[in-house]
C-alpha cells in the first residue's frame, strides 16, 4: 500500500514536470514530432532534454531553498551580533568611573540619597542609574548586561529596599 502511494506521488510529480516541460514551445514541438514519427535518435534527444529540464528544476529549487535558509541564518547572526555588541557598547558608556562620576554630577541633589546609592553593589548602582537616570527599561538593562530580566528585577528591588532601610536607619545621620 505504501509503495503504491509513493508511486502515485512520483507519477504526480512527473506529471507536473512533464506539464511544465510541455509548456515550453520547442519542447512541445519536439514531443509532438516524436509522437508522430518515433525514432531512437528522437527518443534519446527528447529524453536528454527532459533530464536536463528536470536537473534545472531541481537546481532552481535547491538554490531557492539555499538562499532562503542562508537569509534566515544571516538574520539570526545579525540579531546575535547586535546583542553581543550591546554589552561592549554598554561598558564603554557605563564604565565604573563613568558611573560614579555620573552619580556625583547627576540630578541627584539629595546627599543622603547619594550616600545610600554609594552603599549599593556595582550591579545595583548600574541598575539604579540606567533605570532612573537613563530611563532604560529593566529588560533592556538585562540584555545589555547579559543577565536574565529576573536578576535585574531582583537587583532593582534589593537596591530600593537597601536605600529605604539605610535612609530610615540612623546611619545616614552619622555619615557612614
Automatic annotation (TrEMBL):
It comes from the Bacteria. Pfam families: Sigma70_r4 (PF04545). Residues 117-164 form the RNA polymerase sigma-70 region domain. InterPro entries: RNA_pol_sigma-70_dom (IPR014284), RNA_pol_sigma70_r4 (IPR007630), RNA_pol_sigma_r3/r4-like (IPR013324). This is Sigma-70 family RNA polymerase sigma factor.
